[in-house]
Amino acid sequence: MTKSISLDALWDSATPTELVFNPDRLSHLPETARRYLEHAIAPGTKLASAVRLKMHGEIKLKKWIPFTAEQVICWEHGLIWSATAWMNGFLPIVGSDRIIDGIGTMQWKILGLFPVMTASGTDITRSAIGRLQSESVCLPSVLCGDDVSFTSTESSDLDSNLHSSFVVQGERAELDFTIDRTGALKALKLPRWGNPDGGEFRDVDFGGILEEDRTFCGYTIPTRLRVGWYFGSERFESEGEFFRATIDDVIYR
Questions:
Q1: N or C, which end of the chain is more exposed by having fewer CB within 10 Å?
Q2: Separation of alpha carbons 157 and 236, rounded Å
Q3: DSSP states along the chain
């Protein structure tokens, strides 16, 4: 599979499975992990290997500008986020961020013709893998695997903290979740490779506030979110947040 693969081709590459979600198979997990997975996946739902999402929102490029986007996550190969953003309300910037089989790239063009940003290389790849790790919450079936470990940490009266660890695209993910009493995901955080201040690339706290969820095809996932760097600190609100999205439609394979 090449890095220039289309959204449709990535979607079609997913390998369907006949395995279904059975809560009885979670008995070995911490209570918080069971609560989260049982909220996220209805009993009897096929364990999907891919998800396709449509969304709209705002992205911060010096100032907030609107976008619409479609995204495919195929856990075996990676993800493509294809979007159109409008500068000054009318000038379209078209492009994609992707990580496919261990190769990350970014390419954006004004009017789809004139390049404004192209990026690739080891640092871009590592950062894109971090994005894929964080967006595992859109494909909760992958968090049911035997290769995923969960640890419950300290809890408050209202929310519980859950840590998950797994490997994807050759990089280990260390995700911290905040889960409410119903099992809904309220926040996530992880160290992600990046350089949000324009300096050297390094691990930076990355994450998001998940304000709403909805159910699609037996999966309940976050559908209104605010995401950015320096998550968990005051810098998130003042300079780190760069992505606000509402997910409008979701299908699974």
A1: N
A2: 25
A3: --TT--HHHHHHT------B--GGGGTTS-HHHHHHHHHHB-TT-B--SEEEEEEEEEEEESEEEEEEEEEEEETTTEEEEEEEEEETTTEEEEEEEEEETTEEEEEEEETTTEEEEEEESHHHHHHHHHHHHHGGGGSGGGGGSTT-EEEEEEE-SSEEEEEEEEEETTEEEEEEEEEETTS-EEEEEEEEEE-TTSS--EEEEEEEEEEEEEEETTEEEEEEEEEEESTTSHHIIIIIEEEEEEEEEEEE-
Residue 202: inside a domain, yes or no? yes
Q: What's the structural domain count of the chain?
A: 1
Q: Residue 143 maps to which CATH number?
A: 2.50.20.10
> Is this structure's pTM higher than 0.90?
yes
